[in-house]
Amino acid sequence: MIEKTIALEGIDPVDIYGQNNVNIGLMEHMFPKLKIVTRGATLKVIGADEETSRFALRFDALVQYYHKYGHVSTEVVGQLFSGTPKDEAPVDKDIIVFGNNGVIVRARTPNQQKLVELYDTHDLLFAVGPAGSGKTYTAIALAVRALRNKEVKRIILTRPAVEAGEKLGFLPGDMKEKLDPYLQPLYDALNDMIPAARLTKFMDEGTVQIVPLAYMRGRTLDNAAVILDEAQNTTLPQIKMFLTRMGRNAKFIVTGDATQIDLPHPSDSGLVRAVEMLARVKGIGVVRFDKKDIIRHQLVNHIVDAFEKILQPMNKAITKTCFNFERQRSLYVGKVRDVYDIDGRYLAMVVTDRISAFDVVLPRGIPYKGQVLNQIASRFLDATRDVCPNWKIASPDPMVTVGYRCEPFPVEMIVRGYLTGSSWRDYKAGAREICGVAIPDGMREHQRFDHPIITPTTKAELGLHDENISREQIVASGLVGEEDYALLERYAMQLFECGTAMAAERGLILVDTKYEFGKLDGEITLIDEIHTPDSSRYFYADCYRERFERGEQQRQLSKEFVREWLMDNGFQGRPGERAPEMTDEIVEGISRRYVELYENITGETFAPASDSDVPGRIEANINNMIARLR
């Protein structure tokens, strides 16, 4: 007779012994000649040498099974102890891991299954979609499986702690205690899949790490399953930093929901742009979850539906109008605006949801963009009426302004207070003169001019490019008379001064803008939009100096972010170039950015107009306005 002692290390004995030692009872039934004694995490087996060794082999197979799947059942014990040591209980193919207390983690929806399948063939995965769709839980299950199968040596889970800066400074405790509430969902998932004692050991020795995103900088992550959760709250530089941590034999999963951005400025989120840029890269997979994947309470689906009706009217952008009003003479279609001539005396300008960049109209409209631009322009037209006469009579609809028809000048007056945008790109390429205005050597991007300068351009037809032109060329060619041009310059500078003061009240810097003028009954009159994010560029005043001194990019309120996205995707409107695909996420992100622009520029909360029948609403409001103009 011999006595053999087996120690369970890092395992809760109940997981092996079973509740009330039911598994031990089953082992004793299958090895009746042995005496089995359990005391805590130690198991003693007493019996003949050959029988004891045979039991030890079976028990070792059981422990290995537990390490692989995190769970054993009486059925598994029965199969392992009645077969040969190499036998292993069959496992359902859709099961990812066996969790604690009988929890079985499996792919429950087609997109969860797609994530599981792509994990085997891709080193980087993006899983994007609504809350409750199982993105993070499935990703963590895959990481736990990889660790159990010894495919990786560690699991690293990270989240951007959006509120974990100065705003948490008043909370008691060390940094871990301050950050734990933001990381708790990750702990919850792990606690479902790894026994508590073993998880504690893993975390103590660094096999499992849960850290805020900021702590990832400078690391190289080899032999690891790494998950970035809540990625919608990362900026583009942050998500780039994370992705470039990937080392040898690493698996990365990025999860996020673009509709739940908690950043102070939602448009700063880097998730949507990262997915758009990397989706076609070999070795990178994208799984787009949707409301059909939601497996929480049945009400969650109804909640998602309700919010989608408000936040995602992607198919209701107005990109074209074709009205036929009483007394209508003509229709002019510009890059963004459709202008209806009424009686040759009035214009009804519909600001559509079209968006243009590099003088090209992009393939999809942006919900609420037209309303944003029209309401900002209407506000500034009213506010600057004492500086310069303008064309506006009224704004009868959130997307419409009605005013007097003026004879437009064939030039646009662009006022620049800072060297940025296209002027900086020209300057960087070696130009030291813009539209006849000399620019000194030694200037830096975003540097303020000693005095604002005027750099006029010609007004191009749809599909053509505006061209820089000097004052001397304008006057010499007869495009504008010398006396009129002097007044255009004076009005432009006065309007810019007024806009600068109004921007300062909102903590902004008016960087540059364009003005268009015409004549009404012989009087020079401001026409079109004014001080909108499409026609103007704003910087945030509070961080301008610090960013400039560091040589960093400025935080902007303008359409420049659209141009940057296009350039990142290889498009600048040059011959032969094709605009990149505008996914729903891209369109939604741009829409949110325009709403953000409105609220920052005006200081008011944006109130979306009814979208049940926008064309019908616009037509009715313009007809009512025409009737009042008789």
Number of strands: 27
Low-confidence stretches: 85-91, 163-171
Write down the Rg.
33 Å
Mean pLDDT, to the nearest integer, reads: 85
Gap between N and C termini: 114 Å
Give the fraction of residues assigned to helices. 25-40%
Name the beta content range: 15-25%
Large-scale geometry: elongated
Largest sheet: 7 strands, antiparallel
Please state the structural category.
alpha+beta
The DSSP helix count reads: 19
Short description:
The protein is α+β, with helices and mostly antiparallel strands and 630 residues long. It contains 19 helices and 27 strands. Residues 85-91 and 163-171 have low confidence and may be disordered.
Question: How would you describe this structure to a colleague?
Answer:
The chain is of the alpha+beta class and 630 residues long. Helices cover 37% and strands 22% of the residues. Strands 19, 22, 23, 24, 25, 26 and 27 form a seven-stranded antiparallel sheet that branches. A six-stranded parallel sheet has the order 8-7-9-10-6-11, with helices on both faces. Strands 12-13-14-18-17 form a five-stranded antiparallel sheet. The protein is elongated. The termini are far apart.
Secondary structure elements and pairings:
Layout lengths: L1 E6 L5 H5 L4 H9 L4 E5 L2 E6 L1 H21 L4 H9 L12 E4 L5 E3 L3 H10 L4 E5 L6 H14 L5 E6 L15 H19 L2 H10 L2 E5 L11 E5 L7 H8 L7 E6 L14 H8 L5 E5 L9 H14 L16 E6 L3 E6 L3 E6 L4 E2 L2 E2 L7 H15 L8 E6 L2 E5 L2 E13 L1 H8 L4 E2 L2 E2 L8 E8 L2 E2 L12 H7 L4 H24 L2 E13 L2 E5 L8 E5 H10 L5 E2 L2 H9 L15 H19 L11 H15 L2
Parallel strand pairs: 6-10, 6-11, 7-8, 7-9, 9-10
Antiparallel strand pairs: 1-3, 2-3, 4-5, 12-13, 13-14, 14-18, 15-16, 17-18, 19-22, 19-23, 19-24, 20-21, 24-25, 24-26, 26-27
Helix pairs in contact: 2-4, 3-4, 5-6, 6-7, 12-18
